[in-house]
């Protein structure tokens, strides 16, 4: 096994770790009683607090950015903040399965955006893999979709949150052609958290007085789905195309639904578990056969 093959397998392993990590996000949010905007704000601020030792290493490049780059970092942060705000709110109105299955539209949105922005082409194997994964995701959430009341509002919030995160991913891919993944992630998280802080002030949400349990949940969200999820996927944008990275959300309904079944006692049927296997197969097909050449080429040049 040559160096490039080992490196690509390492990237695949990190990709799987990222999928598992982000799948815990919905569980932690459901455990918390705090306002979703407060949860998202502290999740991001605590992430950057944990990253401060690494920030010292990058101190000479953290501020070497152009005015245009600062503007796009703020835009990416705004989209990330909007995603967290809308998607976390959806979890209060609908089930984990319904909310996360709508996120599977993200790679489609990113694929279309990548074609127009970066001329990234999608081959037939990638499309087949994406189709299999999305079909499996629909099966997982189909029995749970409701077209009335709070559930419909929750589904709509999840949809618009998906649009926001797709824009966030596309901006990130463009920015990281010129800047490293750490300065990008650090400043995007800072901007997103600050936008959420202003929102909390406007809404009159309290910043203090939370029980130890809530602070523990905020910290878990910072460590598991943010550091080992979002930050990891931002780093992978250096080695994979934006559509491939966004495909990670197709694995989230599988893991999230299983976690919700175990930890939240939400219903999960046998056919939904079977659909989960189709999702994982579709994601594997997309990554293995659609992005191998690009990842190997990038690693060889680094």
Automatic annotation (TrEMBL):
GO terms for cellular component: membrane. SUPFAM superfamilies: Multidrug resistance efflux transporter EmrE (SSF103481). It is a multi-pass membrane protein. The chain crosses the membrane at residues 12-31, 37-58, 70-90, 96-118, 125-145, 151-172, 184-203, 215-237, 244-264, 270-287. PANTHER family: EAMA DOMAIN-CONTAINING PROTEIN, INNER MEMBRANE TRANSPORTER. Keywords: Membrane, Transmembrane, Transmembrane helix. It is found in: Endomembrane system. Coiled coil: none annotated. It holds the Pfam family EamA. Its main location: membrane. InterPro entries: AA-Vitamin_Transporters, EamA_dom, EmrE-like. The keyword Protein biosynthesis does not apply. It comes from Paenibacillus nanensis. Belongs to the EamA transporter family. This is DMT family transporter. Residues 13-140, 153-287 form the EamA domain.
